[in-house]
Amino acid sequence: MKNIIIALVSLISTAAIAQNFPLFSTDTVNKLEPVVIKSKQQSPERMPEIKENVLFSGKKNEVLKLSNINGNFTTNNAREIFSRIPGVTIWENEGSGIQINVGVRGLSPNRSWELNTRQNGYDISSDVFGYPEAYYNPPLEAVETVELVRGGSALQFGPQFGGMLNYVLKRETKKPFSFETQNTVGSYGLMSSYNAIGGKHNKFSYYIYNHSRSGDGWRENSEYTVRNTHAFVAYDFSEKTKLSAEYTNMDYKMQQAGGLTDSQFNANSQQSLRERNWFGTPWNVLAINFDTKLNNRFSSNTKLFGLVGERNSVGFTATPNVEDVINPATNDFANRRVDRDYYKNFGIENRNVLKYKLGNNDNNLAFGARLYKANTRRVQDGKGTTGADFDLSIDGRYGRDLDFTTENVAVFAENQFKVSEKFSVTPGVRYEYIRNTGEGRFGISNGNDVAMPVKSIARNQPLFGLGMEYKFRTTNIYANITQAFRPVLFSDFTPPAVTDVIDPNLKDASGFNADLGFRGTHKNYLNFDFSLFYLSYNNRIGGIRQFINDDPTKGTFLFRTNLGETINKGIEGFFNLNVTRFFQIEKPYGNLDLFASISFIDSRYTDFSIFSTTGSAPNVTIRETNFSGNRVENAPRYIHNFGLSWGNNNFSTTLQYRMSGKIFTDANNTVAPSSNGVTGILEQYQVMDFSSEYKFLKHYNVRAGVNNLLDKNYATRRAGGYPGPGILPGEGRTFYISLGIKL
User: Is 7's pLDDT higher than 80?
Assistant: First the structure.
């Protein structure tokens, strides 16, 4: 780090000298034809003050335009895509890229569940307030931009602590017909094909794509196939009124290689001890969108959306120190466990912006409402087959059969008061009504149902926030403080792992996010954003490791409970320096960009204590514990990304380097790894990626890259249940090459 800082200072000093003492003599003037360098302009960009009836003034946000980034879009390599956004933690379960697991500011990346995950502005997760895991994300080859708004988004998008993550899909609005195809091959049997058509004719526009991908996977027993299909149609009644509809269907089948113990990981991280574990998630999302602008001062948007999906898994779920072998007594393998979820949800969301005068200043009021209902049926612990294929059939009944319903009503408003042309203040409020209802069978004991009593919890939750922004010519200072809220999820009451024990007295979590930063651009060569953040998270739900019956000889279990208050605070910074523009030599030499995103995160428990109790579960005793001062699990102390990109009219290439600090994987801050690989510290890691693109004959491109260029052995997470208990390795060195056509 010291050497990097010295190099940057030296570079800037050299640039300053070069400006005072030009490299080229001005005695002779030669007339040259203008040369336009069309190489990629490095993301991220920022949202305007108002976009699509949402106020972004005073909020920390980033917009990644993927056409301006080199990366492995084929397998949705989140490490490359999010490298320009500081503070993003990434879990790498496997290399298929089917699920993107990201978190921010030390929050859990588990299927992006601390974020409000959207596609084209509507929800795509299972159940926003019951089970907000994102089993689906669009293929990045179909994505135009990725938008991330931090905790300040809670007032307009929902109370999530992490903020809002939105994937905006490609559209064709200029030609009556366009065609795009991108076909990729790569390491370990990777084959992928993305094909799309789109266009606009008079008032009618459309876009349709299909993406199919398969591979054997870098690890043993990790083959997968995935297909995504999307259709969009729109009709412009006038310049001010538009109606559109879109439908997305995804289906995949993925073999889960499972976790490893640390000794297995160190011996050969590519190995797998599970060949009978499978996972699949058919997903259907439908949305209808209506935009209208009544006049120059009032615009409105209404989205009607719905989701029908499933989560299906079958496998041998024991920890990796237990072998999955044939039982001599039965001459067969053990029966596998089958778990299934069925999701149905729908909602309607209305957003409006009213522009009005207050004195001599223009002000903006953004307001709206949301209605949402979701139902999840969860069946678990079914006695599956002894086979090895993706067979979800069971013998008898499921051990657990639960039904959960979520109802949500929200109203929200934010007003941007422009105190002057440069300074604005934006207070806001959101009111949430959330009702969760659960019922069903929690288990079977001696042939009799163990019923879960009908339980209904209703909340009336107001949230407040305040944002401020002061503009200079091309830069601005921003500040924001916004409350956040996370109700107890129904998934919190059902153990994700067979060894977990749930506290029956779980409470809702609440807190706030605060930001203070300076961002903008300088001339045409510097793009930057540096900020401080502070995140308070009260009653966060997590797990602490306890001995069975308080006896170290009988093993451990994870007790899931409210862990008191955690404070996540730190520094986030990004800059992109176009070196050749700085020296004014981009015309002959192209664009050379040096970028870095840095974050220092201090995440600790400040009020964490539980007391001795029995009766939480059979044979369980909870020892009095106080971990105040411990570090929050899965929160690295630092995440740094450094990169160098070069491009001209036809060719662009990027080399980037990611550094992530060590993490504790439980609230106990256990250092030594457990014998089953479920707990223990994960060491820091560094990974380098290379990607490039060559465009030729106007419509064609060749893309190629190498991920984990130095073939580092590393891991980003441990799991207690799916996708397999134990340590989950990151992928070793892989490559890809892709040919594309766009007409």
Answer: no
